[in-house]
Amino acid sequence: MPSRLTPVQWLICIIAAIGFAFDIYELLMLPLIVADALNELGGLRPGSPEYQQWVGLLFWIPAIAGGIFGLLGGYLTDLFGRRRVLVWSILLYAFSVLAAAFSTTLWQFLLFRSTTFIGFSVEFVAAVAWLAEIFTHPKQRERVLGYTQAFSSLGGIMVAQAYLLINRLSPSLPAIYGGPDDVWRYTLMSGFFPALPLLVIRPFLPESPVWDEKRKAGTLQRPSLAAIFSPALRRTTIITTLMFAMAYGAAFGAIQHMPRIVPGFAELASAEAPALRAAAGAVQSWQEIGGLTGRVLLAMLVVAIVSRRRLLWTFQIPGLFVVPLTFWMAQTGTVASMSWMMFFAGLFTVAQFSFWGNYLPRAFPTHLRGTGEGFAANIGGRMLGTSFAFITPAIVQPLMSGPPPVALAKAAALVAAFVYVCGFLLSFKLPEPKGEALPD
């Protein structure tokens, strides 16, 4: 039986949970603010070709940057230690999100969104390796990884509520650069302040004992990108990378577009900007509540279902039907109906992200844990998966008929069906971890 958590271990869990929460807080700002940012910085209107192009660029280019540097961050995590890389990744995304709030051009905004993405891409890899190696008892480790990752969805709920609050307070907030409506800037600024306690506390937390002991004993092998493609790990690396991409494809290719579909609902035809923002924020809040529910369910099931493939299917199979149907029905949706359907779309999709946080540490040995996680999460998730954020509006949507919100809903439904089917078929090749202990 695992011993009770020590005060230091509780602090580690709290700090990790805060880190996961604000990684997603920063990530999920963009669907809420992108329309206002493009309007102010570039005079771009929804539906125009330039607008569609910039939406795709803002979702995809930062993800490519995050994927490249996130992979590098995974390598550095294996080379220099988990804790050190964590602290620098937080510094990067905390100051990047603040800088993005004061952007004066579209290219500045794209640059700072990219450095923000790099920060939390590295953060995820380092945090998962750190937690997995600090908590050595298998069931305790699985629960800690599951429940701390659940706070990622709390970050999504928090950003939606912060956006709604700032929207209500906007008439009394001072203008920045004389802009007519700075809700999007203040939403970005809100992402800086929660990082402050992380910056203060994390440097004083312990390094991973597993990694540190090997380093001090001189037995820690040097990480290598080629090593994760050795015969023993090649299948694991390829399948986890592709499946991570499909899970992120559902989120970026469908779910994150819902805030731009909501303004097309018939009941909102005469609504003004504040009411449209409120409706989009409300629907996204329900989606994030669903995501939180999914992560908590996975944390509860992760020690009860031994087979990793069956655990994944618990969420993947119902999502295969629910997520595409949600977006197909969004063509004639209402705020109430879409709130409930997005709850379940978020539940089945976001739970899969927590699955990978639990699975990947058991897939790679200590000296390759960060590198392997970094490749699957960043090349698969951040680069390949988030490319669907560009594919949906820029490639699939123009092929669909109807007004922009209706065409976007159709495109998201098709993309969701594609990535879910691919992910399910790939799951039959997913290797089962050997034993409960982490590979040495």
CATH class category name: Mainly Alpha
By CATH, the architecture is named Up-down Bundle
Low-confidence stretches: none
Order of helices and strands: HHHHHHHHHHHHHHHHH
How many distinct domains?
A: 1
Quote the distance from N terminus to C terminus.
Answer: 21 Å
Tell how many strands the DSSP assignment holds.
0
Specify the overall morphology: globular
Helix content: over 70%
Q: Count of DSSP helices? A: 17
Which superfamily, in CATH terms, is the homologous superfamily? MFS general substrate transporter like domains
Portion in beta strands: under 5%
Describe the main β-sheet briefly: none
Class inferred from helices and paired strands? mainly alpha
Radius of gyration: 21 Å
Q: What integer is the average pLDDT?
A: 87
Report on the architecture of this protein.
The chain has a single domain, classed as Growth Hormone, Chain: A. It is 73% helix and 0% strand. It is built from 17 helices and no strands. By secondary structure, the protein is an all-alpha fold. The two termini are 21 Å apart. The protein has helices spanning 7-27, 29-42, 49-80, 82-101, 106-134, 138-169, 183-189, 195-201, 209-217, 234-253, 258-261, 273-301, 308-329, 335-359, 369-384, 388-396, 404-427.
